[in-house]
Batch of 2 targets.
Target 1
Amino acid sequence: MRVKISHGLFLFIILIGLCGIIFDVEAASAFNDGTIVERKKYSFPPYEQAKGIEKICSKEEYDRAIKDSRYELEKLIYLSQGLKVVAYLYRPKNIEGQKLPTIIYNRGSYVREDIAYELAPFFHRLAADGFVILAPLYRGSDGGEGHDEMGGADVNDLMNVLPLAKSLGFIDTTNLFMYGESRGGMMTFQAIRNGFPINAAAVFGAFTDLESLINSDPNRYQQMIKVIWPDFESRKEEIIYTRSAIKWPEKINIPLLVMHGGADKSVDPVHSLNLAQQLQKLGKKYELLIYAGDNHILSRNQEDRDRRALGWFKKHIKK
C-alpha cells in the first residue's frame, strides 16, 4: 500500500529529523566535555633550566617539591566545547581506594606556556594538607586549542573540570574548593555565579570591576583589549558586566576568603574592599584580609596566604 505524503508534511518530517540531528550533536558535545584524551606524567626541569623560577622560589624549595616521591604531577588534555585544552593534576602517588578533597586552582594572567614547574612548590604546599589539586590552564595556553577570552567562553573550560574530576575516580566531589589568583579570582567568581558545586573559595589579587581596572591604566589595557576582545566596542557593556563580580555580589553564595596586598600595583586593593563591602551589606559569609605593604601575589606572605586558604577550606569540609 502506498501512503501519499503532502509537501508540507514532508518538510515537517525533514525538519524534525534535522532537529534530532542537532540535538544529538549537542548532546554528544555536552557528553564529551571533560573527557580526558591524553594524560602523561610531567618531567620537571632542574632548577637551573627552569626559566624564571628564581623569581618564584629558592632552589631548596623547588627541589623539595619536585623530589618528594609521595606526589606526582600529570598534564591532562581534555575536551571543552570541542576544543582540546590543558589542565595540571597534582596528587599523591598512592591513591588507591581513596576519595580526596580537591582544590581547583585558577591561575592568573592571560595566555601562558608551560607553567607546571612554576606551580610545583605552590601545589606541594597545598597537597601536604591532604588535597588533590586540579588546575585548568584555559584555552590557548600550554598548547591548548582555541582563543582565550579572559572570562568569556574560557569559563566553560573551568566548568568542564567538574566532569573531568568525576571521571578520575579518586576525587571526593562533595568536597571541592576553588583558589583563584588575580584573573583566576575573576574566573572563580564566575564559576560560583554559574553554580559550580564548591564548598568554599579563596582568592588573592582578584579584580572585581573590569571597567575600573581598564581605567586605572588605559594605555596598557587598550593594547590588551585589541588582542583579547577585538569586538570590545560593540560588546563593551556585556564584557564588563560578565567579568565584574561587583555588579552581581548577590550571586556569591558560598563562603569566600578574600586576600589582597596593600601595595598591589597591578590590581588596587579597593577591588577587594568594595566587594567585601557589598558582601557585608548582603549578609554573605566572607572574610577579608589585606596584607599591608605586600604585592599583587602576596609574595612576602605566600606561606601564610596558603595556610589561611587551607584553613578556610578545611573549615568547610563535609564529613
Target 2
Amino acid sequence: MNILNLFKVSINAVANNKMRSFLSMLGIIIGVAAVIIMMAIGQGSKESIRKELSTMGTNLLTIRPGADMRGGVRQDPSSMQTLKMADYQRIMAEKKYVTNVSPEVTSGGQVIYGNNNTNTTVYGESPEYLDIKLWTIERGDCFTEEDVHKAAKVAVVGKTIVTELFGEGADPIGKTIRFKSIPMRIVGVLKSKGYNNWGMDQDNVIIAPYTTVMKRIAAQTYFSSIVCSAITEELSDAAIEELTQILRENHKLKGEAADDFTIRSQAEMMETMSSTMDTVTLILVVAAAFSLLVAGIGIMNIMLVSVTERTKEIGLRMAVGATGAVISLQFLIESVIISLTGGLLGILLGISASQWIVPAFGMPSSVPAWSIYVSFLVCVIIGVLFGYIPAQKAANMDPIEAIRHE
C-alpha cells in the first residue's frame, strides 16, 4: 500500500470517531495555545520594557554613590555623600566620550497652588537633563544656566502637576507654586510621557535648577546621582571607563581600592531586564508545556483503545498482505494527524488570544514567529513518540488470533 492510500485510510479512521478524536486533540489545543500565549506575553513584556527604557535614551549613563563599609557594616548607597560639585566640574572639563551631563538632587513632598495640592518629586538638574532623558518642552521654555548660577526659584513641570493644581488644559506659565514653603515660578510644561511599565506616572514631576534644590529645598552639598549621555550607544563602555578614571582620581582611590561609586548604562539595564523576562518566560512556558505531556499521554491511551477495537480489521489487512511495518505506519500517521490538527487549532487559538484577549487585560503581547514553528514541530514529535507504542502493538499482532478476535 502506498503512502497516499495510508493517509486516506488514516484520515477516514480519525473522521469516523469525531468526538473521540476531538477529545484527544483538546489537550494539544490547550497546551499549544497556552505555550504561545506565555511566549507572547513574555516577548511583549520584553519589547515593552526595552521601548520604555529607550525613551530615556539608549546612551544614558547614571553615576550613583557606591555602598561603603564602616565599622564592618555596609552602608546604604543612598546615604553616601561621595558625589560632589568637584566631580561634576571635573567631568565637564575632561569628558571626551560624554556629551551632556547633569547633577541630580531629588526631594519628595507636597506642592501647593492656591487651595490645590498634590504629592510629587522635585528633580534638581541642569538644563542638559532634558536632552539626556529625551524630554520635550511643550509650552514655555526650560530654565537656563544663569538660573542655575543664581539658584533661581523657577521650574519646569509635567502634565500631571498642571492638571492637579490648575485644571485640565490650563496655562500655568508664569504662575507660582510652593514646594516645602519655597515659591517656584513655572517657566515651562513638559510634553506628556504617561505611565511607564512599572505603573509610575512620568508626568508627575517638577524639574528645577540643581542649585535651587540643593540650597533652598534639600539643604545639602552632595548629589544623589549624576546622569550623562555617551556620544553614541556604541561608545557607552568607553564613556564608563573614562568616567571611572576621572572619579577614581578625583576621589584619590589608588591600586586595589574599591570604587565608592557605581556607573550603570541604559544598555546594561536593558540587558538585565531582558534576561529577567527571558527567565520568567521560560518558567511560564515550561509550566504550560506540561499540559502537552499530559495531552501526549491522552493520545497514546486513545490510540491503544483504537488498536484494541480494530483488532479484527488489523488481522484482515495482514491476511491480505499488509506487513507489520505498513500497519505500524498507518497508526503512526493517525497519531500525527490527531496531534497536528490539535496543534494547528491550538496555534490559531493562541494567536487569537494573544492579539485580542491578552491586551484587553492591559498586558503587552507579541507573538514571536519562531514560537509557531516550534509548536508545529513539537506536535509532530508528540504524535510520533506517543503513537509509537500503539503502532507497535498493532504491528506485532498475530493475524490468525486477530481475525478470531471478537
